[in-house]
Description:
The protein is built from 21 helices and seven strands. It is mainly α. Helix 5 (137-160) packs antiparallel against helix 14 (359-374).
Amino acid sequence: MVETPTLKTPRGWTAGPKRLWTDWKQMVSRRTLPGDASAALTVACVALPLNLALAVASGLPPEVGLISGAVAGVVAAMLGGGRLQVTGPEAALVPTVLLISMKHGVAGVIVATLACGALQVVLGLSRAGRLAQFMPSEVTRGFTAGIGLLLLDGQLPRLLGAVTEGTSSARALVLPSTWSTWSVHGASVVVGVLVVACMLLMPKLHRSIPAVLVGLVVATAASSLGVLSEGLARVGALPTGLPMPVMPSFAGLDFQALLPDILALTVLASLGSLLSARALDQLPGLENHRTDGDQELVAQGFANATSAMFGGMPVMGAIVRSSVSVQAGGRTRAASVLHAVMLLGACILAGSLVALIPMAALAAILLVVATRLLDLRGLRALMRQNAGKGAVSVATALLIATVGFLPGLVAGVLLSLAWGFFSRPRAHVRSLLLRPDGRPLFRPLGAEGQDTYARPPVQLLRVRGDLDVRSCANVSAALQAPPWPDFLVLDLSEVKFMDAAGLRTLRELSDALAVRRGRVLVAGARNGVAKMMETDGTWSDTSPHAMMATMEDVLEHIKQESTQQAPAKVTNTSGAPQPT
């Protein structure tokens, strides 16, 4: 997996233009442009036949898929909430688009695409994109794995050369009734093995080698020699040209009957894009990539509206193509933009060469991507940490692969909520009062003593376990009444997981203490917990609060500040501390 440049993500839609300008400048960097161009060519080769096939499966002319991927891909890449998301026609949209095309024709699909884009822009501007961060992480993992299973199911027969009438999925091939209808095509298997070998072995020689592109070139060249060229399925002839943009016509359409399908399409395309973006953020090696969900919805809306004006079909963010881009070396928006430009250029300038690419080579690329999307190592780690969440991820993946995208996703969310409701809170909070030097602070009640404070210098909250929606109340209860401390120290060294609700609780604690002239110092946050807090910005260098690596660093920081400005000891005549 490639390393991505560090880029701080501004908060909120109002910061979108500044972030876009930073991303656009990075697109023309001589350091990243070669890798982006290589990734774009690889993704274009994968997306081109997929776009054609998805258009046909949706009841539309094949060129509609190509046009949609080209024009909408550029718009979404330039305006999107993340640098590496690739947009285009997607398999999850096919059932809904096919239903619209059967009921309302091609004109109905174009109008539905335009209306879907308008609604997505409204959702983005109303900041509905942030709702994606409340999606349970185990459901997001299941979504990614479910897409991987769908890829395995659809592409394994292509690799074996076993796609015949009525047997286009791996599930169909294992049925005894289909055993007599298919046979393994040796040339397809050899071509696929060449691609897989290049993808797995080339990065071990040198990480900068575009392994996917090399495998594609090697497989295409080998497939034109000798017996490997016999009976090998290829991409084939491509449509050419790009129509002029026009505003879709509403004449003759029953818009009232079309409206429910538009709403379903909007929900499906928006959820799919947001989940794809979040899954992309969680891929290994992309720790610095963070997607602005609100901006992503606005970008997807403009992309769908543009697609409709060119007579195209609905599009959404595609985790498969995005993963291919990352694995092939994509680092900036240029990879997504160039991929869309190459889709159109391939038809106009190099249609005859692209037509020679074996379908088995593309299937092999997607199979490798699918196995990486399954992330079996990460699933095993989740099972060890929390068997319930691991079971939810597995169930979500299987349901998406068998029942469908939207039903499987809804079922996954319900299973996650049920698990959270019936399981006990995972976080345990221990509160301690400390002196500035870290020694315990004992506060006498009504007794005379020289060592009394108007407010505790330090309150330490040690949190153990998962800090999620079930356990937020435990943390909030530790700081609900005076006396308020000068410093609230959150020891998160034993917190392995935190969701959006846990992050919001910590932010609210920090805001509440800041109003009362206190500060929050976070110690020991690691991995995903630290990334979430860094992205949030509440504990940044410019705020009164801060994050530090260890408790020792926190105590040293408090000691230095206490030395510069010692805490006042406010007492009344009886020696008891005055209330604040």
